C-alpha cells in the first residue's frame, strides 16, 4: 500500500501516520524495540516494520541499532520533537469533537502488573481524549478490587484470572496471553532441588496456576521469594534466585522462557485480563471502560484480535 499524500502540500509530500509516530515515540522513550512492543502491545516484527516505513518515507535513519539497545540519530532527535507535538495536537483536536461534554471522576482498580506496566500508557492516551475526566487509580490484588467494586468504592476494576475462569458474574474478558516458566539466561536455579520459585501471595492467579502445574508434574519445590510486585519477582529471576511464572510478552533478555520439555514442567496455560464495571455509572465511566477495551482489542492477543 502506498503512503498517502496531501494534495495541498508542496509536491504532494507524504502524510505521517499517527500510530507509527506513537510507535516511534515508544521506542525513543524505552530505548528498545522489544520494550516498546510490549508497551504498545504490538509484536516486535510489527514495530520494526512501522519504523522501516517511517525511515523509508523520510529517507533518513532515525535509530542506531545496537545489540541490547537503540538510540536516536541526530535526525531521530529532530523527529522526536515533531512527533510529540503532532501527537499532542492530534489528540487535542480529536478530543475536542469526541469528548467535550464528558467530565467527572472515575475510580479505577488494577493489579500490580497492569498498574505499573500497562495503565500509565492507557491513561495518558485517555486523558488527551477526555481532558475533563479525572481518573483515580487503586492498585491491589484482584479479590480486593472485586470487593471494593461491589461495595461501591470503585467504578471499574481490571482483574487477572486463569483463562476461562470468571471470578465475578460481570467480568468481561478483554485480553489473553500465555503464562510461561521464566528463568535467567545461563542461570542454575532450574537445576536446584527442591525447585525454587518466586510468586505473589495467596489469591494471585499466576501463583495458583504455577503451583497447580508443579503438583501435576510431581516436582518438589519451595517458595523462595514472595512479593506482590512483578518487578521484584523479576529482580529475583535476574539474580538467579528462582524461576517464576511470567506473561510471555514480559520475557526478554537476559530472561528466557523455560520450555516445558526442558525440565519436565507442566505447561501453565493462558491467563486473561478481565474488565469489571458496574452498570449505569455515567458517561465518564463508560468512556474509560470503552477506551480500555479498545486498547486491549488492538493488541496481538486482544479480544478483537
Automatic annotation (TrEMBL):
SUPFAM superfamilies: Periplasmic binding protein-like II, Winged helix' DNA-binding domain. InterPro entries: LTTR, LysR_HTH_N, LysR_subst-bd, WH-like_DNA-bd_sf, WH_DNA-bd_sf. Residues 16-73 form the HTH lysR-type domain. The keyword Transcription regulation applies. It comes from the Bacteria. Signal peptide: none annotated. It holds the Pfam family HTH_1. Keywords: DNA-binding, Transcription, Transcription regulation. Belongs to the LysR transcriptional regulatory family. This is LysR substrate-binding domain-containing protein. It comes from Spiribacter onubensis.
